[in-house]
Design brief:
The protein is an alpha/beta fold. It has helices at residues 11-23, 38-46, 65-74, 111-127, 220-241, and strands spanning 2-7, 30-35, 53-57, 82-87, 103-106, 131-136, 139-144, 148-154, 157-162, 166-170, 186-190, 193-196, 200-203, 207-210, 215-217. A 5-stranded parallel β-sheet has the order 2-1-3-4-5, with helices on both faces. Strands 10-9-8-12-11 form a 5-stranded antiparallel β-sheet. Helix 3 (65-74) links the parallel strand 3 and strand 4 (82-87). The longest helix is centred in the last third of the chain and has 22 residues, at 220-241. The radius of gyration is 21 Å and the shape is elongated.
C-alpha cells in the first residue's frame, strides 16, 4: 500500500487531487488521506503514521507548506519520502531547493502532470532503500533499514535502535527473519541482538563495537556464523569495487 497525504486549505483542491489519483491507471493501490492545515499532518507523522508521498500546498494557514516540508525533513525523519508542491504562485520555487522536492506544480495543474509526478514518486520508492515495517500499540512505523543500528530483545519487546531514536516493537527477536526478511548486512550475533554491519567499527572475538561506542556481545553459538558472514560481506564488496 502506497500512502499519500494531500494537504491544502481548499477542500475542493484536496477532493480534485484525490479523484485524479483514484481514477488514474498504472498506479499501485493508494491510501489517500487529506488534511487542510499543516499542523495536523505533522502531528499524524509525529504519532508514527508517516506517508510515502506528501502533496503540499504552500499557502497554508499557521505554518505554510515550506515550513511543513522543513519539519518533515528535519524533525520527523521523512528523509526518504517524496514532497510534491502545488501553488498558485511560482515565486516559491527557489525556496524549496533545500527540501529536495519531487516537483513544483502551479495551479491550475493538469491531471496528466499530477499522475506523472505520482508515478515517478512510486518508481523512486521502489528503487529506494526498503523499510522495516512494524506495528506497536495500533500505530504503523516504517523505518529505513539504513537508519537501524541494531535490534535488541528486551522485556518481551524488541528495541529498534536507530540513528535518531529508539523505537519499541511488540514481539520477540525471533519473529524477525534474519535470513530473508532483512538485508544481508544484518546479522544475529547474540540471542538478544541483531546488528547492522554498516555501523560496526571494530570486531573482536567476543564482542563488536559500533560507531557510537555501543559494545555488542557475540555469543559462542553465533561466533562461527558471524565470522563467515563478515568474510562473505568483505569479499563481495571487494569484488564489487573491481
Amino acid at each position: 500500500m502506497y500512502r499519500v497525504a494531500i494537504c491544502d486549505d481548499e477542500p475542493d483542491v484536496c477532493t480534485v487531487l484525490a479523484e485524479i489519483l483514484d481514477r488514474a491507471s498504472g498506479l499501485p493501490k493508494l491510501e489517500i488521506t487529506t488534511y487542510y492545515e499543516g499542523e495536523t499532518l505533522c502531528e499524524t507523522v509525529r504519532r508514527g503514521m508517516p506517508f510515502d508521498l506528501y502533496i503540499l500546498d504552500i499557502e497554508l494557514p499557521c505554518i505554510n507548506g515550506v515550513e511543513v516540508g522543513q519539519k518533515l525533513r528535519n524533525e520527523l525523519g521523512q528523509e526518504y519520502a517524496q514532497l510534491l508542491y502545488i501553488s498558485g504562485k511560482e515565486r516559491y520555487a527557489m525556496q524549496l531547493f533545500d527540501l529536495r522536492p519531487l516537483n513544483f506544480l502551479t495551479k491550475p495543474f493538469s491531471d496528466e502532470k499530477v499522475v506523472e509526478c505520482v508515478k515517478l514518486a512510486v518508481s523512486l520508492a521502489e528503487r529506494a532503500a526498503p523499510f522495516f515495517e512494524f506495528k506497536h500499540k495500533k500505530q504503523l512505523y516504517r523505518v529505513p533499514y539504513g537508519e537501524i543500528r541494531y535490534f535488541e530483545s528486551r522485556n518481551k519487546n524488541v528495541v529498534i535502535h536507530t540513528a535518531g531514536e529508539d523505537l519499541i516493537m511488540s514481539g520477540q527477536l525471533g519473529e524477525i527473519n534474519t535470513e530473508t526478511g532483512l538485508p544481508e548486512n544484518f546479522m544475529q550475533v547474540h540471542q538478544s541482538f541483531i546488528i547492522n554491519y554498516e555501523y560496526v567499527q571494530r570486531v573482536g572475538y567476543q564482542q563488536m563495537r559500533l560507531d557510537d561506542g555501543t559494545e555488542i556481545p557475540i555469543s559462542f553459538p553465533y561466533r562461527k556464523k558471524v565470522q563467515e558472514r563478515i568474510m562473505k560481506l568483505t569479499a563481495d564488496r571487494r569484488d564489487h569495487r573491481r
